[in-house]
Amino acid sequence: MANARTRYDTISDFMAREHDAVAGSLYGKPSVQVNGTAFLFYMLPGMAFRLQGRAREQALALPGATAWAPLGQAGERSPWVLVPVAQFLRWDRLAIDALRYAQEGQVATPKAEPLQGPPEAPPAARRWRDDIKALLEKASALRLLR
């Protein structure tokens, strides 16, 4: 366990020194963040990495690795993979992959964009507008007969 914690500390220091990452605590666990996005967590069973694509699949294929979530609700498609201490020699490569994923900005976070002009009318409003316009055109074509 001491070697695993030393490896985490080394990775954390490297990320802070070379990639402007911030080491701290999130949800009561040691973590590393870049641009406000956590991408590494350390705990006694192992280290968790936020990964995508092939890197995620390869990490899940490691013996003992499982899907994980920081708040405990790990789903099948969770980007987090918990890699056990027995695999701590592979943590360096996984940490670099997790850093790239966090830096690319493809992590799903809501972003607000300024509105340019009035918002577009919803489809139902357009349909009503068109229906009323068509009815008025039909009504204007009506003639009274005696």
Please tell me about this protein's structure:
This protein is an alpha+beta fold and 146 residues long. It has helices at residues 2-19, 53-60, 91-104, 123-141; strands at residues 22-26, 29-34, 37-43, 46-50, 66-68, 80-84. Helix 1 runs parallel beside helix 3 (91-104). It is elongated, with a radius of gyration of 27 Å. The N and C termini lie far apart (100 Å).
Tell me briefly what this model is.
This protein has 4 helices and 6 strands, in the order αββββαββαα. By secondary structure, it is α+β, with helices and mostly antiparallel strands.
* N→C terminal distance: 100 Å
What structural class results from the helix and strand content?
alpha+beta
Number of helices: 4
Task: Determine the strand fraction and express it as a percent band.
Answer: 15-25%
